[in-house]
Amino acid sequence: MFTLVVPIQTRLPDLLDAPREDTAWVVTATLLSAAVITPIAGRLGDMYGKRRIVLVLLAAMVIGSVIAAMSTDIVGVIVGRVFQGAVTGVVPLGISILRDVLHEDRIDSAIALISATLGVGGSLGLPISAVIADEGDWHLLFWISAALGVIVLALVVWIVPESVLRTAGRFDFIGAAGLAVGLLSVLLAVSRGSEWGWTSPLTLGLGAGGVVVLVAWGWFELRVAEPLLDLRVAARRPVLLTNLASVAMGFALFSSQVSYPQMLELPTATGVGFGLSLLAASLIIMPSGLIMMALSPLSGRLARMVGPRVLLIAGAASLVLAYAFSLVWASEIWHLLVANILIGFGIGFGYASMPMLIMRSVPPSETGASNGLNALSRSLGTSTAAAVVGAVLAGMSTTHEGMQVPSAGAFQTAFVLGIGAAVVALVLALLIPPRPSPSERHPSLPEPRRR
Questions:
Q1: DSSP code for 404
Q2: What is the largest CA-CA distance in the chain?
Q3: pLDDT > 70 in the chain, percent
Q4: How would you class 135 by CB atoms within 10 Å of its CB: exposed for 0-12, middle for 13-18, buried for 19 or more?
Q5: What is the gyration radius of the CA atoms in the chain, in angstroms?
Q6: Is 268 exposed, middle or buried (0-12, 13-18, 19+ CB in 10 A)?
Q7: Which residue of 91, 353, 375, 449 has the fewest CB atoms within a 10 Å radius of its CB?
Q8: Are 78 and 30 in contact (CB under 8 A)?
Q9: Mean pLDDT of all residues in 72-90
Q10: pLDDT by residue (tens digit) across 314-367?
Q11: Which range is the signal sequence, renumbered to this chain (predicted)?
């Protein structure tokens, strides 16, 4: 869903007869809805059944795909993309279902496999969407996503068992509204700040207002009897450090997804580009997702042998190596291919380890909401990277044939930002305790397995 419109993004103003600043909402709308819906869906899954909420989210994605496929103007496409963003909540809910229904010896490998799909879907979706966009009508992209949604929905009904573990109580509507308003305000400021101006009253007002709302939301959540998210659980050292590392790792991942494709596609005459088509560039990016899928069985076994903390450390170290490589060697296509392969290792190990670390530190009744918060942390990292790295590439530009293009220094700066985020993720991973201390463990959690 996130890479679906990438091949047609530059053509959207012509296709939808709308200004470029308006068509940018086709991407931003999905990001915002995913960030807001994911943690709320996790809590709803804990309370009313994870499989049931998965089906609701899949149905929303299908509805959104049909709306976008039938639309000829920008309003319909943006509305459809808002509904499509809801499907992001399926991933943390799916991970939580695994904890409920699988034998403990199979959970780590299964979590690693589901986590790998986060990269595989984007990596495979890009070239497939490029081919469809080049050969057919752009509406076909949304019809295909609707068909895939129907297939997945049917498979979930057929195969996935209902979880019998439920959290009693009432849903925290005030907490959900507060979280939604705060997140929307902050993410709007971050994602649109480069266009509106980072010091504009609108950007500053939304950013500051969102922070104030989130602080008030946290105060309220700590005092309500049945909160949307138990912040005391989220504040435990392993959970907090894992979520902070998720933000940094999400930033490091998206720094490459913003910078590498532009380098590959820019004309060679610019002195920094390789002149590849969108399809050829996507094939260079694709191996990172395939590596994530191939690593998933190994990640599960390694997690059982050395623990997910070591896996997260290895993933962050691989990202540091990838950007260090790019800072030294980025003059040939194969250089970017090697860097993407290293990123595939880093994200494959890192994304597989995060849910494992979370679920070792939270009670079973909190898995949906806690995994939703972790997914939100990754989204905050990726959205921040998209805004910051995008602003760097736009601000440090040169003129080529009357068009502004990023300079070599802009890409070097993007790589520095990526390696900085990866180093932060590495340091945070090193600070995570090897196993939760007795004071940090929830009473309902079993003693950790000692292997």
A1: E
A2: 66
A3: 96
A4: exposed
A5: 21
A6: exposed
A7: 449
A8: no
A9: 91
A10: 999 999 999 999 999 998 999 999 999 999 899 889 988 998 898 888 887 777
A11: none
Q: Which residues contact residue 188 at a Cβ distance below 8 angstroms, ignoring those fewer than 6 apart?
A: 28, 32, 206, 210
Confidence check: pLDDT of 16 > 60: yes
Rounded (5°) CA angle 292-296-299: 110
Of 138, 100, 163, 184, the residue nearest 8 (C-alpha): 138
Q: Of 364, 439, 437, which Cα lies nearest the Cα of 104?
A: 364
Which two three-digit tokens encode residue 64? Answer: 């959104």
Interacting residues of 22 by C-beta distance below 8 A, sequence separation 6+: 74
Tokens of 125: 């979706």
Whole-angstrom Cα distance, residue 241 to residue 236? 8
Residue that wins the pLDDT comparison between 428 and 132: 428
Closest Cα to residue 51, out of 154, 127, 157? 157
- Dihedral (CA of 239, 185, 17, 75) sign: positive
Query: pTM here?
Result: 0.83
Question: What pLDDT was estimated at residue 428?
Answer: 96
Interatomic CA distance for residues 218 and 197, integer angstroms: 29
Q: CA-CA distance, 269 to 249, in Å (whole number)? A: 33
| CA distance between the termini of the chain | 39
Residue type for position 43: R
SS3 (DSSP) at 188: helix
pLDDT given at position 435: 67
Any idea what the Cα angle at residue 137 is, between residues 135 and 142, rounded to 5°? 115
